[in-house]
Amino acid sequence: MSTILKGIAASNGIAIAKAYRLVEPDLKVERKGIQNSEEETKRFEEAIRQSQSELETIRDHAKKELGEEKAAIFEAHLLVLSDPEMTGSIKDKIKNEKVNAEFALKETADMFVSMFENMDNEYMKERAADIRDVTKRVLAHLLGVELPNPSLIAEEVIIVAEDLTPSDTAQLNRQFVKGFTTDVGGRTSHSAIMSRSMEIPAVVGTKEATKEIQNGDLVIVDGINGEVHVNPVPEVIESYKDKAEQFAKEKAEWAKLKNEKTYSSDGHQVELVANIGTPKDIEGVINNGGEGVGLFRTEFLYMGRDQLPSEDEQFEAYKTVLEGLNGKPVVVRTLDIGGDKELPYLNLPKEMNPFLGFRAIRLCLEDQDLFRTQLRALLRASVYGNLKIMFPMIATINEFREAKAILEEEKEKLIQDGTKVSDSIEVGIMVEIPSTAVMADQFAKEVDFFSIGTNDLIQYTLAADRMNERISYLYQPYNPAILRLVKMVIDAAHKEGKWAGMCGEMAGDETAIPLLLGLGLDEFSMSATSILKARSLIKKLNRSKMEQLASEALNKRTTAEVVELVEKAVSSQYSH
Ligand code: PEP
Ligand code: MG
């Protein structure tokens, strides 16, 4: 039967393919008595063999696609499987206690896990995690259920998941993953942001994708309207093929603007730059006519691994991006971990309010080794392009001063050691906490630039968790309160001769762009795939008229009034 799910359009485009569920199956185990322990042992051995061959395939694949380091984890899993101490204990249990293999496996594995976990040794603790993972795989074979193996995907698929962590998303193979849909999340959740930078159509927050979609179902992800069609009738498939074609045509039209600068119809210039998560995203920036990078979210370099990236590794990543952009500006944000971006290996305690907690610059100022390593890598890379550094989640002037002082110290040390460092690195901050927006006039005297992070600024101003779809009605980019804060920041920057950009998702939003142009925003940083569309929109807008529009919007009382005002103004601009 065909079904339609509604969700949030997270990434533009249309994808049609078979579903691949990235959902863990039910692996509950019951204790059952058995008659024939030999047969049961054989069943267990067969499950081990199947797991082994599966893991070998995954390991080889990971080696090829992700490198030796990422593949090592599967090597460790294979070692667990071939450990006679563990498999021996399980077989003994089956034989002596006459219990089913699932139960014997689970009991034995739990015992080993708790033994390793209680050791005061990081290496042993990691072995506990390996055993847990391997146990799941063998159990799945015994229970006859399928465990998802995303790294084995070898045909075009639509990923269906409850949520995708940023590291899940980063590991998806762009060649085969044509689209994705999730139960939870909003437009600014990081899975959505990643889908845009990977140029994969996505619909998030459908609430029931994992309930309604089975492996192999034919799925259409309509990332333009926020709809997911499950097993659609042939007419719907045909109409979506037409839509996809239409979308491709529009894209071709925008593509003509690729090498142009961005001017409004009355000749006011702005800069359109891209948000990226990894050096792999550079290609998308260039192909989509980006005039630089307005936000490099460096936390993705720290994810999907089990230890911090070294200074050299980071240096290489930053150098690749700077060289790839060939002298165009690259704004790199220092580590912004926390909120929905976790780093399990930092072993940070769970907090009641992670979005308001020990995160980003707060963590970096305390764990200075981690911070200094990143800063040194950045400073060393600075000679390879046009680097600007910005600090995330700045709430007070002192935080900025402290972070900048650490940066200066590291710079001085490197120079003393004879390392070349660029002497024209601009240092700015993200404005994503209301206190900083309100104090922008003071900050502007000390920083080189602002980049407004509306994803967080909106959530903190309206006290509405950006991940929570139940209160998504409060997540209001066009609320006059937000527009007023944005204006304060831009005006404060200009008064001190500094520039103001925006790297929150609002910067690429069609309804927001006319307002932001009118408010005087200098730099718009968005997912690369939104750039050409934004350029084509700005070309049609008259800057002076947008100034009037913005000042009217600031005096509206509701979001709805603002949206209505913009829609009227834009349609009348188009008709001229
Ligand atoms: C923001 O908060 O607007 C932002 C760009 O940062 P992030 O989405 O990574 O929190
Ligand atoms: Mg933020």
TrEMBL record:
Chain segments annotated as transmembrane: none
Entry keyword Magnesium: yes
A Pfam family recorded for this sequence: PEP-utilisers_N
Ranges where the PEP-utilising enzyme mobile domain occurs: 154-226
Domain Phosphotransferase system enzyme I N-terminal: from-to ranges: 6-127
Molecular-function GO term, any one: phosphoenolpyruvate-protein phosphotransferase activity
GO cellular component: cytoplasm
EC class (word): transferase
Matching Gene3D superfamilies: Phosphoenolpyruvate-binding domains, Phosphohistidine domain, PtsI, HPr-binding domain
Enzyme Commission number, as recorded: 2.7.3.9
Cofactor: Mg(2+)
InterPro entries for the chain: PEP-util_enz_mobile_dom (IPR008279), PEP-utilizing_PTS_enzyme (IPR050499), PEP_util_AS (IPR018274), PEP_util_C (IPR000121), PEP_util_CS (IPR023151), Phosphohistidine_dom_sf (IPR036637), PTS_EI (IPR024692), PTS_EI-like (IPR006318)
Known catalytic reactions: L-histidyl-[protein] + phosphoenolpyruvate = N(pros)-phospho-L-histidyl-[protein] + pyruvate
Domain PEP-utilising enzyme C-terminal: 251-542
Active-site residue list: H190 (tele-phosphohistidine intermediate), C503 (proton donor)
Subcellular location per the Swiss-Prot or TrEMBL entry: Cytoplasm
Binding site for Mg(2+): E432, D456
Chain sites annotated for binding phosphoenolpyruvate: R297, R333, N455, D456, R466
SUPFAM superfamilies linked: Enzyme I of the PEP:sugar phosphotransferase system HPr-binding (sub)domain, Phosphoenolpyruvate/pyruvate domain, Phosphohistidine domain
Biological-process GO terms, alphabetical: phosphoenolpyruvate-dependent sugar phosphotransferase system
Keywords on record: Cytoplasm, Kinase, Magnesium, Metal-binding, Phosphotransferase system, Pyruvate, Sugar transport, Transferase, Transport
Family indicated by similarity: Belongs to the PEP-utilizing enzyme family.
Protein name per Swiss-Prot or TrEMBL: Phosphoenolpyruvate-protein phosphotransferase
Organism: Bacillus smithii 7_3_47FAA
